[in-house]
Design goal:
The structure is a single chain. With 301 residues, the protein is an alpha/beta fold. The chain is 58% helix and 12% strand. The protein has 13 helices and eight strands. A five-stranded parallel sheet has the order 5-4-6-7-8, with helices on both faces. A three-stranded antiparallel sheet has the order 1-3-2. β4, α10 and β5 form a beta-alpha-beta unit. α3 packs across α5, α3 packs antiparallel against α6 and α8 runs antiparallel to α9. The longest helix has 21 residues. It is elongated.
């Protein structure tokens, strides 16, 4: 079972720690536990309760009424909201609960409902991506444990792989070629998988090379396929001390291709970008880039 500070609850729920303390005193909503050294902490049950309270309050329920609800009544109201209200915050809230509970069936229901109403691409852009960004920050600060983060990330990964497989098409030889890869030592592949889906769904060729690719192997693939573009997501590796050198080496080694970079280690890092390197801060910028270049290629053909 995970343990949380009151600041963790604030970050996860959006409710200020000061407000949570008032609710503790006035409504006895939650009762913190204490360590042997008398430090207050909260558990998974407390977190789920506060997430549910936050959602109900955002949807017009008065805190006094929420405090009078039984656990079952609160859960029924929350389920009703998340299943009928497809606003993005409600769906992100529901995914957070599924992550805390390690509840795969709940995750599947949320995904299928959103994909049915919004389509796969909009679900990823507006629900899954903001959610993953949120849990990424929480994982780095220790507010959620690695098992919870791995659980939900692997479920998203499975969905992306199925979606990519469904995009397989017989393509003409003149389509744009993209080589998709992560640097050696980099393992965070969800963004690269989604980028692959976006590129293939627009009838371009995406050659997926995956995690932790040595430069020498990338050179061999590019020598064989002569790609128009390389797409690289750099989340953790190389780090701040090596990233400029790595970008320069990519640009020099693959001078015949345009290199599209995104990820935590390059976005907002004030890098000196070589002429053949393009920085994409958000996934919708990749969509715009691919759409524009697909149109240009279609006209030229």
């Amino acid at each position: 079972m995970s343990t949380f500070s009151i600041k963790d609850l604030e970050h996860l729920s959006g409710i200020k720690a000061h407000t949570l303390r008032i609710w503790e005193q006035r409504y006895e909503l939650i009762n913190p536990k204490r360590t042997d050294t008398n430090i207050r902490y909260y558990d998974d049950t407390d977190l789920k309760l506060i997430l549910n309270v936050a959602l109900l309050k955002e949807n017009g329920f008065k805190i006094s009424k929420i405090a009078d609800m039984s656990e079952g009544e609160m859960q029924r109201e929350v389920l009703k909201l998340t299943e009928t209200n497809l606003r993005y915050p409600e769906q992100i809230h529901a995914l957070t609960i599924a992550m805390v509970d390690l509840d795969e069936s709940r995750f599947e229901k949320i995904m299928s409902t959103n994909i049915l109403k919004l389509g796969f691409e909009k679900t990823m852009l507006n629900v899954i991506y903001p959610f993953l960004t949120k849990i990424g920050i929480l994982w780095q600060t220790g507010a959620i444990n690695p098992a919870q983060e791995h659980f939900i990330s692997n479920l998203v990964r499975q969905k992306l792989i199925v979606a990519i497989d469904n995009q397989f098409l017989s393509l003409p030889p003149n389509v744009q070629k993209y080589v998709m890869f992560l640097p050696e030592g980099e393992l965070h592949e969800l963004s690269l998988l989604f980028a692959t889906y976006l590129i293939r769904s627009r009838h371009n060729k995406a050659i997926y090379l995956g995690q932790s690719l040595p430069m020498i192997d990338l050179e061999a693939v590019c020598e064989l396929h002569k790609p128009d573009y390389l797409v690289c997501v750099i989340t953790s590796t190389p780090g701040p001390g090596q990233i400029q050198q790595y970008v320069n080496k990519l640009a020099k080694t693959f001078g015949e291709s345009q290199i599209l970079l995104t990820g935590f280690q390059v976005v907002g890092q004030d890098l000196d970008l070589p002429e053949n390197v393009i920085l994409l801060a958000r996934m919708d910028e990749l969509i715009d880039f691919v759409d524009q270049n697909s149109e240009v290629n279609s006209i030229e053909a």
